[in-house]
Amino acid sequence: MTMERQPRRLKWLSEVQKAYPGARRGNWETHGLDSPFAHQTYVPTGLEEALYRDVINRRFRLVVLCGNPGDGKTALLQKLAGQLGIDKTRQPTGTIEHRLPDGLLVRLNLDGSAAWETSSSNDLLNDLLRPFANGAPAEDIVHLLAINDGRLMGWLDGQTTPLAQSLRRLLNGQPSDAPHIGFFHLNNRSLVGEFDQHGNLRTDFLDQLLDQLYGGAEAGRIWQKCQTCVAQPRCRVFEAARYFGPANLSGIEDERRRQHARQQLYRLFQAVHQRGKIHITIRELRGALVYILFGMASCDTYCKADGAKKPYPPFWERAFRVATPDRQGRLLEELASFDPALEAHARLDRALLRHYRGVHRLAEARRRAYFTWLPEEIEQAGGPGTTLDLARGRHLDTLRRLPLMSDEEKQAVLARLGRGLSRLEPLPQPAYRPGRIPFRLHPRTPTDTMFWVETRLEDFTLESPLLGTGVSETGRRGLPAEAFLVYRLPAGNTVRLRLTADLFHVLLELEGGYQLSAATLEQTFAHLSLFIEQMIHAQNQVWYAWHPAQEERVYRLAIETRDLGFGYHQTLRIVPEN
């Protein structure tokens, strides 16, 4: 676009918008590497290089890329095929053959779920996998397969060969018993962040993805026409580029503010990953980024719009607000649940409304400041210690760092979780004793007396596994999507509570005095109720009781059982505990 009356359209914008599944002008760029633009914006993950070495060195004879639709299996195989010298990988289905100069015969199936001409998908899978049915093949071959895990499980149904048994083990996450098979489940990686060997959180993939969406090394040239465009003051695309564009783009914010905005965006996607309700695929991640950064409006829309009014919502609204135009997909739906506008801070909110005098809604001001205000500016406006975080996001950093914590740090978090568990339902103050976690009992007949059982904090442990990337050479591990609270029962076996980001947040908020009804907890976290019931059932020999008439007195109720030879005699003993 230029200062001329008839602006030149920015072709890159119309291309990049096609990477969003809900694009108005088609979504051609959501499938594989079937266009020059797809190749230009492809971001390697490290698995490509590792697989290339493993293939040419004959480490693997069968490579299976498994995962959800949109995980990037086909694109990754196409990239690997290009490294192996295979050019024609744009055909939709069928088996591709290519012999390397050293004699290795490579066969690829880019989509194990698809049929081809007169061959069904089962026929194609049977042909591709037959040489490995009983172990490693004798001939010098390597077969590469991209397939959805559901389709692979369907093919395995009824199969009894050694290959089928090995693939079942690998699908179930068990150790491999077939070293000639390279099995990579792309669900077991974290695209939104990884910990390096020193425990530092790295977002290289996201950084490269954003840079590539703006054109990478060519971004300065691609967006040059926007520098003199008459629509720049009202262009939402250029507005976002100032904060998220690569360093070689003219007109961007200073480096610290730009990096802060990017990290705030990454933190949003990391929160969705940690919440664990959906698996973030490459297709969904690219689509959501395109929607937030570029929207769906064309250059003409901004050029022809009234200069006094911007015709499309800004990036901070597209990131969080549910009702923005053309919004669709589970990932964008999840982003809205972390909307900073769902929480409040009186002093900060007054400062935001004074600063954005043209903004009539506090919600928009909070969303905007989340991305564009630096931490010290938030603290200056709201007072010492003030932060503007994602809704229910205060404890995400603690959950994220849990696998890297020392035993002492984990014990401190465990104690906080224990205090939160003990406050799920109100109990009298004497019920709270150091090193103990009480759980209230509910008699069938209402009574003024409160009853509870106790568990020991030392019988609980915390587990939080890091995700494996599938590329051991990188030495990196993905963000944990969950943690587990493990309780050792008196009999020696254990019960486990899956701590999602939501439940982790609630328990730490309860520890700080937050109130939540038992009915709400049961509806939201049914597995928590089951976990507590299992612990209560294990403490079926000792109870505690308290009555408001004796506020300082707690009674211990214990059942003593005697074997009389011809039967058992049970006695309930009630003794003061303090």
Got a strand count? 17
Low-confidence stretches: 1-8, 469-473
State the helix count: 23
State the distance separating the first and last CA atoms: 81 Å
Report the biggest beta sheet as strand number plus sense, adding barrel if it closes. Answer: 5 strands, mixed
- Overall shape: it is flat
With strands numbered from the N-terminus, the spatial order across the biggest sheet is 2-3-4-1-5
Taken as a percent bin, the fraction of beta residues is 15-25%
- Give the total of domains: 4
Structural class designation: alpha+beta
The percent of residues in helical segments reads 25-40%
Summed over residues and divided by their number, the pLDDT gives a mean of 87
- Write down the Rg: 29 Å
Structural key phrases:
alpha+beta, disordered N terminus, 4 domains, Rossmann fold, P-loop_NTPase, 5-stranded antiparallel β-sheet, 578 residues, 5-stranded mixed β-sheet, flat, 23 helices
